[in-house]
Specification:
Strand order of the largest sheet of chain B: 4-3-2-1-14-15
Radius of gyration of chain B: 23 Å
Number of domains of chain A: 1
CATH architecture of chain A: Sandwich
Organism (chain B): Allosediminivita pacifica
Shape of chain B: globular
Number of strands of chain B: 26
Low-confidence stretches of chain A: 1-22
CATH class of chain A: Mainly Beta
Oligomer: heterodimer
Strand content of chain B: 15-25%
Strand order of the largest sheet of chain A: 1-8-7-4-5
Pfam families (chain A): SoxY
InterPro entries (chain A): SoxY, SoxY_sf, Sulphur_oxidation_SoxY
CATH topology of chain A: Immunoglobulin-like
CATH topology of the largest domain in chain B: Purple Acid Phosphatase, chain A, domain 2
Helix content of chain B: 25-40%
Distance between the termini of chain B: 43 Å
Number of strands of chain A: 8
Shape of chain A: globular
CATH superfamily of chain A: SoxY domain
Mean pLDDT of chain B: 94
Radius of gyration of chain A: 18 Å
Mean pLDDT of chain A: 84
Protein name (chain A): Thiosulfate-binding protein SoxY
Largest interface: A-B, 34 and 56 residues
Strand content of chain A: 25-35%
Structural class of chain A: alpha+beta
Organism (chain A): Allosediminivita pacifica
CATH superfamily of the largest domain in chain B: Metallo-dependent phosphatases
Chain lengths: ~140, ~575
């Protein structure tokens, strides 16, 4: 059969979004966590992580992290080839320990936020973001 | 002291026992004698506020047939819960007699025979009669449109939604929210919204560049009715740029944004709202979850998933109303709001039997005016059908079987894919198929029928991906709609399996051979969300096919085997 260039491109665009099994936290991710916390215990919850349930575009996913009084918040994308996304450091003059950015997600995966709180303890929250082909709406 | 929640439940139980919900009433009465308009409209006006809800009209101005699904599987916490109850189980659940009008209106069994007896449903001139009758009881009733209004017909497509805007303006809603409207393109949506004599609401319609609430769409609006300060918060379809072509409305971003919803509820409460209504296009299961996450919403008027429920569903102190689609139903909800609290409610899902409810003559004239320039094209007969043509169902419907056949024969493909949308009226055996009928199930602003090669592996990814959008156990990860329809391809699906492992035993039906992940197949489909998709329009493809066939025969489709339901 004949393919036009456009059709080939459209097909390629679809293929690029192919999803594999969702990546959850794995050993490599835990290494990055340990590096950030120095091996300290991490409590579940206590960090605000706002991320879409389903990404409109995996190449630019808006996220927001916040934790009151935190001196630093690290963001990891557990299923990306390179999981570390960013570490936001908040100095004593920061108005709020809050940051918003857009990140790139290779596939359906957990986004993880770990905060170093004012008392030196650590807190962690994760959120599953689905990256999907789309189409076929009701 | 009776708590608010107890009060709601007592009120609900009492109304069920007395038949005051209206629902039991008309089904029993009708079993004994012919239906009358008075019976359908009978309602003991209650409290001090009335809400009228219409949703997912999909541009159906004239009466139609609409077969409800026989397969609508719920997963996770919604397994076996309404609206995932169909057929005889649904009738038993609500005490509906077999063969009654409510059987015909709400379930799929014996559809063709009951359609002969009870006739067509819907028609915006009949809806106008019902709305006017409710306003006669309660002149300041709020009329709220849940969206998917400016899409779904020949005239709507050719007027870019103007026919529906003209008709809805005459019906005078107070507010609406959105989904398919955006597929008209963002410039057209902005143009139409600017001219609306009512409010365009969506707390989750955000500006894509700044990720802030979009300027043209207010999150909420206040209405003073019956001495009650009512806040209506809009919720557009959360997954518009994913389920539909985002390139058509690049300035907007959506999402569920339930935290923002909570902020809006808190904000309107702080401003003195005594009743908080959410006009939603989330889909029923998403709304049900949201009702548990967000506190302080009294009523959610649900939409998107096209469910019609004869009684509200309670989640905590929130009541969820489901009003069907395609103009087939109007919901009336009367509320007693005192001292800033909803103290009780009375509800009726009014089925629009078009032969029973008299059309409003002014509205009929207005509708016919919209159709007049196109009437020759609309009424041209293309073929006829021997069986019922319908769309609803999780995996297939006879309309989509026909569309897939058309794609395979007209586009010379081994496999066809057709989107699992839930709009589109039905036809009954012996009906002529007109061009309007074809457009009712195909019209959209991205109807190109593509022809591509796909590997077996990619086909599986497509099926797995769509399956997870329907059967993910967490409703927030569902997009509504149904499974992509397949022609020439059979498969087995375990709806309760994990993403990536639901689909198995994929078979190429023309040879009976298993689908080879490495092999390449010629696939035809339509409604691609990718920009630049090329091909003839799907309505032309289907029209050509029906012309060649003359008479359409429908078969029971056994190409999909379902487990875990």
């Amino acid at each position: 059969m004949q393919f036009t260039r456009r059709e080939t491109l459209a097909l390629g665009a679809g293929a690029a979004l192919m999803t594999v099994l969702p990546y959850r936290a794995n050993a490599a991710v835990e290494d990055f966590v340990n590096e950030f916390t120095g091996g300290a215990e991490v409590a579940e919850g206590g960090v605000d992580l706002i991320a879409p349930e389903i990404a409109e575009n995996g190449n630019t996913v808006p996220i927001e992290v916040a934790a009151e009084g935190a001196s630093a918040i690290m963001v990891l994308a557990a299923g990306n080839p390179t999981p570390p996304v960013a570490t936001f450091n908040f100095g004593p003059l920061a108005g709020a320990s809050r940051a918003a950015t857009r990140i790139r997600l290779a596939q359906t995966q957990d986004v993880i936020a770990i905060a170093k709180l004012a008392d030196g303890s650590f807190a962690r929250t994760s959120s599953l973001v689905k990256v999907t082909i789309g189409g076929c709406g009701g | 002291m009776i708590s608010r929640r107890d009060f709601l439940q007592v009120s609900m139980a009492a109304s069920a026992a007395l038949g005051a919900s209206g629902f039991g009433n008309w089904s029993r009465l009708a079993a004994q004698q012919a239906l009358t308009q008075d019976q359908l409209l009978e309602f003991d006006t209650f409290g001090n506020v009335s809400l009228i809800h219409v949703t997912d009209i999909h541009a159906q101005l004239k009466p139609i047939y609409f077969r409800e699904p026989s397969v609508n599987i719920g997963v996770g916490p919604n397994r076996g819960e309404v609206p995932h109850v169909t057929g005889a189980d649904f009738r038993r659940l609500y005490g509906i007699d077999d063969g009654s009008p409510s059987h015909y209106a709400l379930t799929s069994g014996d559809f063709a025979a009951l359609a002969q007896a009870y006739g067509r449903v819907g028609g915006m001139d009949r809806v106008a009669t019902v709305v006017n009758a409710i306003r006669a009881d309660r002149p300041d009733a709020l009329l709220l449109d849940g969206g998917d209004t400016w899409h779904g017909s020949y005239t709507c497509h050719h007027t870019q939604g103007q026919d529906m805007v003209n008709v809805m303006n005459a019906l005078k809603p107070d507010a609406m929210t959105f989904h398919w409207e955006f597929t008209l393109g963002q410039d057209r949506v902005r143009e139409l919204v600017e001219g609306l004599p009512f409010d365009a609401l969506g707390q989750n319609i955000f500006d894509a560049m700044w990720d802030e609430p979009a300027e043209r769409f207010k999150p909420y609006e206040f209405y003073e009715r019956g001495g009650v300060k009512i806040a209506v918060i809009g919720q557009a379809f959360p997954y518009l740029p994913i389920a539909n072509p985002g390139w058509m409305f690049p300035d907007y971003t959506f999402g569920i944004r339930d935290r923002h919803m909570q902020e809006m509820v808190d904000e309107v409460r702080a401003q003195g709202a005594e009743l908080v209504v959410c006009l939603s296009h989330n889909g029923f299961d998403v709304d049900k979850k949201m009702a548990g996450q967000v506190s302080g919403i009294d009523v959610i008027l649900t939409g998107h998933t096209h469910d019609a429920l004869p009684e509200p569903v309670l989640v905590g102190d929130t009541i969820l109303i489901a009003s069907g689609s395609n103009g087939k139903f109007v919901s009336r909800v009367d509320l007693d709001v005192r001292d800033g609290q909803m103290m009780g409610f009375r509800h009726k899902l009014i089925p629009i039997f078009s032969d029973v409810i008299a059309p409003d003559p002014e509205m009929t004239r207005l509708i016919d005016e919209q159709r007049a320039p196109y009437i020759d094209q609309l009424t041209e007969v293309i073929g006829e059908t021997e069986g019922t043509l319908y769309r609803r169902g999780n995996f297939n419907g006879t309309w989509d079987d026909l569309i897939c056949d058309a794609l395979m024969s007209e586009r010379d493909a081994q496999i066809a894919l057709s989107p699992g949308v839930r709009w589109g009226p039905s036809l009954i055996p012996g009906d002529k198929i007109t061009r309007e009928d074809i457009w009712n199930v195909t019209s959209m602003s991205y109807g190109e029928a593509y022809r591509n090669e796909m590997t077996g592996e990619f086909l599986k990814v497509v099926l797995e991906d769509v399956a997870d959008n329907i059967f993910n156990p967490d409703p927030y990860y569902q997009q509504g709609g149904d499974m992509v329809r397949t022609g020439g391809l059979g498969y087995r699906i375990d709806v309760r399996a994990e993403q990536g492992s639901r689909i198995s035993d994929m078979v190429l039906l023309e040879t009976g051979e298993p689908i080879d992940p490495a092999a390449t197949y010629v696939v035809a489909g339509w409604a691609s969300v990718n920009e630049g998709t090329e091909g003839p329009m799907i309505w032309d493809v289907v029209e050509n096919h029906i012309r060649q066939q003359g008479t359409i025969r429908t078969d029971v489709n056994t190409d999909v085997e379902v487990e875990g339901a």
